[in-house]
Amino acid sequence: MFRTMLSHARKHPSLIPLFVFVGCGGVGSILYALRVTMTSPEVAWDKKNNPDPWNKKSPNYQYKFYNETVDYKNLKKEGPDF
């Protein structure tokens, strides 16, 4: 497949930016999926030692990658400690 892409890129140089942007989009989506699985408190990889990882996070921990409406620095905890 990579050899076919190179042969098409040699014949039609205008396809090179398309291959670059599609490749960057694919790599970016894989990196974002890895970020979500490694840092999100909803995903528990070790259920034996830490069954509830969302309880260990502070109330001002920023769960989302970007949120323009919530200021995480001023949030206070509303529930009991477990």
Describe it.
The protein contains 2 helices and no strands. By secondary structure, the chain is an all-alpha fold. The model has no long low-confidence stretch (mean pLDDT 79). Belongs to the complex IV NDUFA4 subunit family. This is Cytochrome c oxidase subunit NDUFA4. It is found in: Mitochondrion inner membrane.
Biggest β-sheet: count, sense, barrel? none
H-E order = HH
β-strand number: 0
Cα-based radius of gyration, to the nearest Å: 21 Å
- Content-based structural category: mainly alpha
Shape: elongated
How many distinct folded domains?
A: 2
Q: Could you write a compact summary of the structure shown?
A:
It contains two helices and no strands. By secondary structure, it is mostly helical.
Spell out the blueprint of helices and strands.
Blueprint: H1 2-11, H2 16-39
Name the features:
82 residues, mainly alpha, 2 helices, 0% strand, elongated, membrane, mitochondrion, B12D, transmembrane, transport
